[in-house]
Amino acid sequence: MSRAPDVDGPRIPRVLSIAGTDPSGGAGIQADLKSIAANGGYGMAVVSALVAQNTRGVRSVHTPPVGFLREQLEAVSDDIAIDAVKIGMLGSVSVVEAVRSWLVSNPVDRVVLDPVMIATSGDRLLDADAEDAVRALLPLVDLVTPNLAELAVLSGEAVAEIWEDALAQALRVSAAGRVTVLVKGGHLSGSSSPDALVDATGSLRDGRTVVEVAGERVDTRNTHGTGCSLSSAMATLGVRFGAWEPALLHAKQWLTESLLHSDELHVGSGNGPINHFATLWATATAHDTRTVTDSWWKDIAAVRCRIDELPLVRGLADGTLDGAVFGDYLAQDALYLRDYSRVLAAASQRAPSAEEQVFWADCASGAITAEMELHRTWLAEHRRADDVPRAETPPSRATSAYVNHLLALVARGDYGVLVAGLLPCFWIYHDLGARLLKHSHTGHPYAAWLDTYSDPAFAEVNRRAIEIVGAVGARASHDLRERMRRAFVLSAEHEEAFFADPFDRLSRA
Ligand SMILES: Nc1ncnc2c1ncn2[C@@H]1O[C@H](COP(=O)(O)OP(=O)(O)O)[C@@H](O)[C@H]1O
Ligand SMILES: Cc1ncc(COP(=O)(O)O)c(N)n1
Question: Where is the Pyridoxamine kinase/Phosphomethylpyrimidine kinase domain (predicted)?
Answer without folding.
Answer: 22-275
